Amino acid sequence: MSGSKKKKKRKTQEADDAVSEDATQPLGRKEYDKELKRLHVEVVKLQRWVVHKGLKVCVVFEGRDGAGKGGTIKAITERVSPRVFRVVALPAPTEREKSQMYVQRYLCHMPAAGEVVIFDRSWYNRAGVERVMGFCRPEEVAKFLAVAPGVERSIVESGVILLKYWLEVSPDEQERRLTDRIHDGRKIWKLSPMDLKSFTRWDEYTEARDAMFKATDTSWAPWFVARSEEKKRVRLNVISHLLGHVPYKELASENTELPKRKIERRETTDYPFKYVPEVY
What we know:
five-stranded parallel sheet; alpha/beta
């Protein structure tokens, strides 16, 4: 290797290390809130454009337990209409659903015109938890990985903008977050018996992830990996990336003003309202 190539490689490695280090540094609350507010304004513009143009957008979130999928999805959707941004988080399949074509229960949730559908885990359960925890046979996993790219090509060719995100977290940070769920009464619901069982199978999940990427990271439906060591950063990064991959324009806003009104009848009713106790 020539001196110039070695130098270039060294600079590239240094840049990667710098990015990796920055990605783990806590982001200040004021800086986060300011940037999140700015991005939320853009997400609202995107929402209006999706409805105006009848776009169909499907966003898939996958990743290890504790990687921050739920918090990222909440950050995306907290300032938009649930009638436009629809979150799909399916429970374990029923006996009837188990007898169906595997992707059938997911396809019925695909977006119609003017909708953004966000999958909090998706059809990739078969390549992840079902494979690792033995809920399906190896040949079923192989068949899924073989047909998934074709199914996603059909989805894209039908006019759906399909984005797939994998949130990656380190073993130490995952352990810290799952431990925090045990001791925080606000988060204990996030920790399922399945999370505890799968916690010990880090390497198996790594193998499953790598096989999934190798088979389904296609030009028409690529995977995007978001490092999730610092929750606030990954939320901003994913929202920014999403905005950059769904073409939209700002629609002209009408000059809206509240109309004048006249109130003659002040609160003079005798109805015995049942008021909520004001303990705060």
